[in-house]
Amino acid sequence: MEAIITIISLILGIALLDLSATATGADSRDALPLNNWALLGDWAIASRASVLNGPDGRILFRFHARDVNLVLRSREGTPVPFRVLVDGQPPGNARGVDVDNDGNGVLVEPRLYQLIREPGEIVDRTFEIAFDAPGVEAYVFTFG
User: Fold this and answer.
1) 124 pLDDT higher than 80
2) Quick count: other Cβ atoms within 10 Å of Cβ 35?
3) I want to staple 73 with a disulfide (CB 3.0 to 4.6 A). Which of 32, 98, 127, 137 is the partner?
4) Assign residue 41 a region: left if phi > 0, alpha if psi is -120 to 50, beta otherwise?
């Protein structure tokens, strides 16, 4: 039997802003329709990335996939702690390799971070990542 894997990418910049992006608003995890995202906090949307200008920024995304990955960079090159939630809870065994069971991780270098790896049935879920410090650049989500 041959498996087919579909990978979907979403660039978090102005070039694809028309892809159901919400720059501010929807604080409720349930308010986001499938395949929509929201930036909460002081973010700037640049041509290739969304940049966090102040502390306490969050990205929410309503998804239907096994994997959630995000390309991140620290503008200052300093480590930035982050926390990931799925449907408002720590990911537990649905965590990706770059977070612990409680959803804690650290942005250390510019690269793709595997944040969620669903082990069971794939259903619509809401992903959230929160950053405590400014200077985070979020470039692209990938889903598998």
Assistant:
1) yes
2) 16
3) 137
4) left
